[in-house]
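Quick one:
INPUT:
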């Protein structure tokens, strides 16, 4: 029995290590290419570490005002969109969690219906036009302020994990619903808000669709939209070689002959991916507890 258990443990560990390697290696390969001279990388044979190290690819990116502006748009929409979504969604969840709210079951059914069924892309686009959100920064924020799924998780958490006697005692002291929300609900729900906030932030950071279809102004497009254009169109690739490289070449900060379009694209991918990855370690301790807190009743 012990031998069989040890054999299974070893096999399972090796299998998990293989899966971890297959998941992590593509990112490591892109990182290596982003720090390698593009002309040298074009010859192939680079797998584990840079053969001809350079930071020229990142200098090219940082000299480009379009990328820096796209990075700023991504940071702003992620910060404002995440905070706004957590506030609006948690307020709705708190209201629906109170038994004294008339018609809360009917409202929950309506929210479930609109989560499963929607009007489609064309009616949504027409609605954005009527709200004057096309070619506006707020098209990234306002349509995503409310999430039905997050609301259901929060509602369950508020009902099952916040003691009702605490709320009643605060009511006796004269507190209204607003004070209860800010003084009791939010502090008790920080692990849950941290986990859902991470999911929301990842969505905002990775969303390229909104910028590609609802924003025509290049000054308002986020970084993922710019990256999608760079990776999918020949025009964008030419724009990299002509636009991004010219400023750094004039400054003489790297060897222009060693930088290629592909090496700059690799650096752009890393610039797009790393910021959101750096957020995970700070929220890791809240993650598991926050995900489970709304699904288990104590």
């Amino acid at each position: 029995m012990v031998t069989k258990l040890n054999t299974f443990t070893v096999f399972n560990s090796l299998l998990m290590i293989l899966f971890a390697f297959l998941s992590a290696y593509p990112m490591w390969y892109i990182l290596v290419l982003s720090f390698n001279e593009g002309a040298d990388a074009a010859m192939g044979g680079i797998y584990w570490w840079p053969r001809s190290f350079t930071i020229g690819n990142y200098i090219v990116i940082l000299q480009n005002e379009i990328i820096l502006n796209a990075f700023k748009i991504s940071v702003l929409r992620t910060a404002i969109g995440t905070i706004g979504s957590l506030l609006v969604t948690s307020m709705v969840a708190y209201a629906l969690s109170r038994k004294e709210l008339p018609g809360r079951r009917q409202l929950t059914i309506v929210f479930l219906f609109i989560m499963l069924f929607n009007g489609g892309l064309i009616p949504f686009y027409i609605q954005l036009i009527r709200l004057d959100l096309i070619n506006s920064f707020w098209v990234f924020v306002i349509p995503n302020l409310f999430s039905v799924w997050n609301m259901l998780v929060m509602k369950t958490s508020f009902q099952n994990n916040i003691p009702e006697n605490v709320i009643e005692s605060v009511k006796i002291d004269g507190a209204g619903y607003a004070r209860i929300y800010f003084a009791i609900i939010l502090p008790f729900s920080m692990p849950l808000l941290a986990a859902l906030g991470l999911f929301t932030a990842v969505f905002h950071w990775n969303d390229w669709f909104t910028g590609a279809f609802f924003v025509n102004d290049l000054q308002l497009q986020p970084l993922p939209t710019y990256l999608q254009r760079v990776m999918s169109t020949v025009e964008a690739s030419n724009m990299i070689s002509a636009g991004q490289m010219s400023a750094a070449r004039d400054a003489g900060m790297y060897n222009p002959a060693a930088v290629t379009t592909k090496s700059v694209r690799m650096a752009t991918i890393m610039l797009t991916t790393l910021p959101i990855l750096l957020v995970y370690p700070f929220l890791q301790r809240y993650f598991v507890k926050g995900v489970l807190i709304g699904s288990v009743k104590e």
